[in-house]
């Protein structure tokens, strides 16, 4: 249990009891993708996201990496700033995503680059990912991925497909692109999903997903940022368990994260706790 922190163990146990009483037919998972289903560190190196592979492995024009890092260094501190107003953060995150998407267009992003990026050895699913996906599929439990991924829906579905885990119970809500006949990026479709506006994702706007989850009132939310907590804002639920992967700066962040999440999973650990919770077994690391 050393990799787990509960904000209120008694409250957690009571909510867990309600989940178990309701059964798996009432459960739905809302998850972020990068650094949640995937590991935050691979071979001791930080891997922020699939899009970071473009920077590190020099897929695009020679100046892309420097320009992308400059944007990251400018806006990432704002993204993590807990004191900035949500309204201002939404404005600035939208600005960042727009600038980066324009940079991807100018740098010649091609669909083939996404296909190559998702095969990178830097992108690794967490331990117990395969077992969790198979469990959800077996019990027909919807997994809704709400991601602000810079390489969008195609990168997430491509990575899952490469692992033979793109099951029919998995639904992806993320950015999507428009391509020309040569597979070059020409535009990003609205609305743009960024890290600070997941509260604006209305599941009713996706009727094919809504029909599958409308009667599932017990929600497991899994993220790695304070903004991910808002993924459940547009859902009607009876019970909610919020789980965070606190991958770094644990001592600095844990007390603040405990105000927003029910469970913190530390040290870039596995998905065993989630699987055990669903399996009604004793959580293990």
Descriptive notes:
- The protein has 285 residues and is an alpha/beta fold.
- The chain has one domain (4-278): Rossmann fold, CATH 3.40.50.1000.
- Helix content is 38%, strand content 16%.
- The strands form 3 sheets. Strands 1-11-10-9-2-5-6 form a 7-stranded mixed β-sheet, sandwiched between helices. A two-stranded antiparallel ribbon has the order 3-4.
- Strand 10 (239-246), helix 9 (250-258) and strand 11 form a beta-alpha-beta unit.
- Mean pLDDT is 90; it is low at 281-285.
So what's the overall shape? globular
**Biggest β-sheet description:** 7 strands, mixed
CATH topology: Rossmann fold
Strand content: 15-25%
Topology record:
Layout lengths: L3 E3 L2 H14 L4 E5 L9 E2 L2 E2 L4 H6 L7 H17 L5 H21 L4 H7 L11 H10 L4 E4 L5 H11 L7 E4 L3 E3 L5 E4 L18 H7 L4 E6 L15 E8 L3 H9 L4 E4 L5 H7 L7
Parallel strand pairs: 2-5, 2-9, 5-6, 9-10, 10-11
Antiparallel strand pairs: 1-11, 3-4, 7-8
Helix pairs in contact: 3-4
Could you name the key traits of this structure?
285 residues; single chain; Rossmann fold; 38% helix; two-stranded antiparallel sheet; 7-stranded mixed sheet; 11 strands; alpha/beta; disordered C terminus; globular
């Amino acid at each position: 249990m050393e990799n787990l922190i509960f904000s209120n163990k008694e409250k957690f146990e009571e909510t867990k009891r309600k989940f178990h009483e309701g059964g798996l037919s009432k459960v739905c998972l809302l998850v972020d993708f990068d650094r949640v289903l995937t590991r935050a560190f691979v071979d001791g190196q930080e891997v922020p996201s699939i899009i970071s592979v473009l920077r590190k492995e020099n897929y695009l024009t020679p100046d892309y990496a420097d320009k992308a890092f400059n944007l990251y260094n400018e806006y990432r501190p704002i993204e993590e700033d807990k004191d900035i107003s949500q309204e201002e953060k939404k404005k600035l995150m939208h600005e960042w995503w727009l600038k980066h998407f324009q940079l991807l267009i100018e740098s010649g992003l091609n669909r083939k680059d996404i296909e190559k990026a998702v095969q990178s050895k830097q992108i690794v699913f967490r331990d117990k990912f395969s077992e969790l996906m198979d469990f959800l599929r077996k019990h027909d439990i919807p997994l809704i991925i709400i991601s602000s991924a810079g390489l969008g829906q195609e990168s997430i579905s491509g990575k899952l497909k490469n692992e033979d885990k793109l099951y029919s119970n998995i639904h992806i809500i993320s950015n999507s692109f428009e391509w020309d006949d040569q597979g070059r990026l020409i535009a990003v479709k609205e609305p743009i999903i960024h890290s600070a506006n997941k509260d604006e994702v209305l599941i009713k706007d996706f009727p094919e997903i809504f029909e599958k989850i409308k009667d599932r009132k017990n929600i497991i939310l899994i993220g790695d940022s304070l903004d991910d907590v808002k993924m459940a804002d547009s859902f009607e639920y009876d019970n909610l368990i919020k789980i965070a992967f606190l991958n770094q700066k644990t001592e600095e962040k844990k007390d603040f994260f405990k105000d927003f999440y029910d469970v913190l999973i530390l040290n870039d650990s596995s998905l065993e706790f989630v699987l055990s919770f669903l399996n009604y077994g004793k959580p293990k690391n």
